[in-house]
Specification:
Elements lengths: L1 H6 L3 H4 L3 H8 L3 E6 L2 E13 L18 H4 L5 E6 L3 E7 L8 E8 L14 H8 L18 E6 L8 E3 L13 E3 L8 H8 L29
Antiparallel strand pairs: 1-2, 1-6, 2-5, 2-8, 3-4, 4-5, 7-8
The structure holds a DNA duplex (13 and 13 nucleotides).
DNA sequence: CTCTCGATGGACT
DNA sequence: GTCCATCGAGAGA
């Protein structure tokens, strides 16, 4: 925990322009502690969602019950429920009073760390895998061993390359280059990214697109709530 | 490979 | 009532 506290990104990291935070978030380590278990992975795909001037943002139409967290202090989680069955994890940015958030779209397992990581190649799958739901909304991004649930980000060297593309799965402001990925990772939410984003045409001949998804020890099977 | 569509529920007009 | 910052299955090329 002491180690985590030392590496944990300070609030000042988040209290900055959203696009800066988004770009620099690529390569950082996300950790999630819950139910006596800690999991995590390396951030390889994010998207920036700005405030009122970004039509695709939940904050575009001002402060509402759902978007309130985006207008609050930086360095907390913004989690929302979407499509009736998924959750998405964001990191709140900008000084309080100004809205901004960074959507975490994909993680890749740590080479050799604590707990291995099941599929996290997409924002919905990521939350399902890590067990993140609305109960996490508004939580500060910092290590907290004595609470039911905690999540935070730890510093790590930036990737060799960072690619900028358009955001995935949105209609409005779809042309804005607010998506940042580590192009050398094979865990990107690729199928979605290509069909909706249509940003890159580079066709690597080497096996990159497919290949087995990295899966550690899988847990957290299916939920059959009815 | 690409495209289309259903599931499913909350936020917002 | 309409719109989703999704995912995965199914059909067609």
């Amino acid at each position: 925990v002491t180690n985590s506290s030392r590496r944990s990104l300070p609030v000042d990291f988040y209290r900055r322009p959203t696009l800066d935070v988004a770009r620099e978030l690529v390569g950082k380590i996300l950790r999630v502690a819950w139910g006596g278990r800690q999991r995590g992975g390396r951030v390889v795909e994010v998207e920036a969602y700005l405030g009122r001037d970004d039509p695709a943002s939940h904050a575009a139409r001002g402060l509402t019950p759902r978007s309130a967290v985006m207008f609050g202090p930086a360095g907390v989680a913004y989690v929302y429920f979407i499509y009736g069955m998924y959750h998405c994890l964001n990191v709140v940015t900008e000084p309080a009073g100004r809205a901004g958030a960074v959507l975490v779209r994909a993680l890749e397992p740590l080479a050799n760390g604590n707990s291995p990581l099941p599929p996290c190649d997409g924002p919905g799958k990521l939350c399902r895998t890590l067990g993140i739901d609305l109960a996490w909304n508004g939580l500060p991004l910092k290590p907290a061993p004595d609470v039911p649930r905690a999540l935070w980000l730890e510093d790590a060297p930036p990737p060799a390359r960072i690619e900028t593309t358009t955001r995935v799965g949105i209609r409005r402001a779809a042309e804005r280059p607010y998506r940042f990925v580590d192009p050398d990772s094979r865990v990107l939410s690729e199928s979605v990214g290509r069909s909706a984003g249509a940003s890159r045409s580079g066709r690597p001949s080497a096996g990159e697109g497919r290949g087995g998804r990295d899966c550690g020890s899988t847990r957290e099977g299916k939920r059959s709530h009815r």
